[in-house]
């Protein structure tokens, strides 16, 4: 079932979202000082391609630099990405068939809001992490 949902997701919004995150990651990596945010964009792009069966967890070794990076990200990109995921999630939830895809957009909000210091893992492996929330 996860594979079927991922394939439909890929066609409806996953490919376009991943391309957007990849483009943002490339721009961030060209501007050398923003490489940490570029790497975060690449992680989010892989998550946007195939979200069902995977989730995000907080990395235990992420500390104060991650918090500072997330504060900068929140101001410049996090709020806008979150609003986009909220709008797309609400639009998908209008139909019964679109509800799983709307939930997938809502599930992407935490990683698009504060991506630095997060890791994307399978839902099966997430129980090994102490801060598993989804």
Automatic annotation (TrEMBL):
Short name of any one Pfam family annotated for the protein: YccF
Annotated InterPro entries: Inner_membrane_protein, UCP028777, YccF
Record flagged with keyword Membrane: yes
TM region(s), chain numbering: 7-24, 87-106
GO CC terms of this entry: plasma membrane
Keywords: Membrane, Transmembrane, Transmembrane helix
Residues annotated as domain Inner membrane component: 4-54, 68-118
Protein name, as recorded: YccF domain-containing protein
Organism of this sequence: Streptomyces boncukensis
């Amino acid at each position: 079932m996860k594979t079927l949902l991922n394939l439909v997701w890929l066609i409806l919004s996953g490919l376009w979202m991943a391309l957007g995150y990849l483009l943002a990651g490339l721009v961030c990596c060209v501007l050398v000082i923003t490489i940490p945010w570029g790497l975060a964009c690449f992680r989010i792009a892989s998550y946007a391609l195939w979200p069902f069966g995977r989730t995000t967890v907080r990395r235990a070794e992420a500390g104060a630099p991650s918090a500072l990076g997330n504060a900068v990200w929140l101001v410049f990109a996090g709020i806008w990405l979150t609003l986009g995921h909220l709008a797309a999630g609400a639009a998908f939830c209008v139909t019964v068939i679109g509800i799983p895809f709307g939930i997938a957009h809502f599930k992407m909000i935490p990683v698009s809001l504060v991506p630095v210091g997060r890791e994307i893992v399978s839902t099966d492996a997430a129980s090994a992490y102490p801060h598993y929330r989804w």
